[in-house]
Amino acid sequence: IKFWMSLPRGTDFYDFHLDNKVQHHGFLLKRSHLSNKWQRRFCIIKEGFLLVFKEQEAERIKRSSFYNVKVNAAIPLGDCVINLISDATVQCGIDINIFVPSVRFLFSCENRSNQQDWYSALSDASRITHANFQISDKLIATLESQGMEKVTQSERYRKMLEEEVELRHNESEKASRLEAQQTELQQEKEYAELAMRELESELAALRSEMTDAQTTLERTREEKAALEKRAKQLLEQENQRAGDEESQDNGGEELAKLRREVEEKIREKSALASALEGERSAFDQQAQELSNAVRQLSEQRARASAELAAEQRARQLAEARLREAENSLARLHASVSEERSVYTPEQKEEMKADVGQLKAYFENLIASKSADSGAVKLRRSSRLQPQQQQQQQQQVLQQPEQQQQPFLVRARSQRLRERHRSRLSCMQPSLSATAPVSPLAN
């Protein structure tokens, strides 16, 4: 009490207002352990103490913003027992027992409601003790430590969630590019099949024309042989008539004329046979070029089919791994979102497994990016040889025609080469521009 009374003016203990600086205040009837007489006292509950003043001091305390009067009693509520009493002697009473020193105070309230208000205020004030303060400090420190750990863990998982969102966005873009690539590969495959069917049809027509040319060549050779035989017979007849001078003059002219006609026909047949030979050579060359084009288209179609199948397998594998990562992330997010301070060992093991799975997924994704660059270089180098072959074929197609071929053969050969050149020029950009898309997860 001397300590509280020795506090200077202006401190919080003196500068107070009853409406906002104390826990409870009012009038009670007090009876101490030294006397059985009831006395009306003005009581204040403040900072774990019950301050008891005389009745006439109530007005002064209410008027002034501080008090410097001597209290009648200052009861520490931290180390006491508070009980309600209602019997024949005391109505609406409150019993306060202090253990050290052993002192008992008895208060009486006006009614039941006032009794409950004072009992609640006294019970709340009795909790302000040094032991409770230490416990609260430890509890606050523990909660702060757990809260910081929770914040750190939440921040780490938030970053993981942001990385996962970004990766999922990149995966969706890759999936879109993969779908577009598959569409292009499918269209390229269909175009290659259509071009191969057209080339096979033209090759069949060219072979039919080659057969017709071969038949015409054989027939021309037979006619040439017949004319040579006829010329030989005419020469023999001319030699037989060499003895008769008159007939020699008349018949010699006829035989000479007939022989010239036969020789002229032989020259024509020889020229026709040479032209047919040239046309057959041109047909053979065109057939070889068409066969090479068909073979290249078949190889390109096979590569397109293989790439399409590989892309589909890669997409399925990437989707499966992405689903596993999403499930792990969902479980991890659910564990982090739960409001708990302690995790069981099973939950910790599950969280470690989920984090390990996500880590493996990210490492595989990074490894796949480095492997994709090497795969692109390898595929480009593998495509370099077919491109060189196509350039060589274009150079062969750009060579001048043989001057000894007839006009009809040169025109047909030129049309076939221009058609083949246009197809190669159309297929070359589309195939070279179709770069393989890397798998989502290797």
TrEMBL record:
InterPro entries attached to this UniProt entry: PH-like_dom_sf, PH_domain
Biased composition (Basic residues): 412-423
Residue intervals of the PH domain: 21-127
Source domain of life: Eukaryota
Biased composition (Low complexity): 385-406
Annotated spans, Disordered: 237-259, 373-442
SUPFAM superfamilies: PH domain-like
Biased composition (Polar residues): 427-442
SMART domains hit by this protein: PH
Protein name per Swiss-Prot or TrEMBL: PH domain-containing protein
Organism from which the protein derives: Macrostomum lignano
